[in-house]
Structure formats: C-alpha cells, structure tokens
Amino acid sequence: MLDGKDCPVNELFSRCGFASKSVFYVAFRKVVGMTPLQYISQSRNPFMIQRN
C-alpha cells in the first residue's frame, strides 16, 4: 500500500482508520522509525543509506 501506486499518502490515513494525517504520521514513525514519505523513498531506492 505504501509503494505510492495503490493510494497517495494523503488518502492512506483515512483508509487505515486514522482520524487525521498527523496522527497517522506519528503512529507510522513510532512503528517503522521513519515517515511514510521516507519509507516510500527508501523502498524505491533500496541502496539508499540510512543515517539516524
């Protein structure tokens, strides 16, 4: 779902049952360790170096 093809991030939060985009972003970052946009970018370029 987060490959950017099925659903834009701006619509994804409501499809996942979140009341707002900001609540979704906080929950996503807490679980995955990065924002949805960072996740999409990294998944498109698996050789991207993470710097935390």
TrEMBL record:
UniProt keyword terms in alphabetical order: Transcription, Transcription regulation
Signal peptide stretch: none
Classification via Pfam families: HTH_18 (PF12833)
Residues of the HTH araC/xylS-type domain: 1-42
Coiled coil: none
Membrane-spanning parts: none
A single MF term (Gene Ontology): DNA-binding transcription factor activity
Highest taxon in the source lineage: Bacteria
Protein name: Bacterial regulatory helix-turn-helix s, AraC family protein
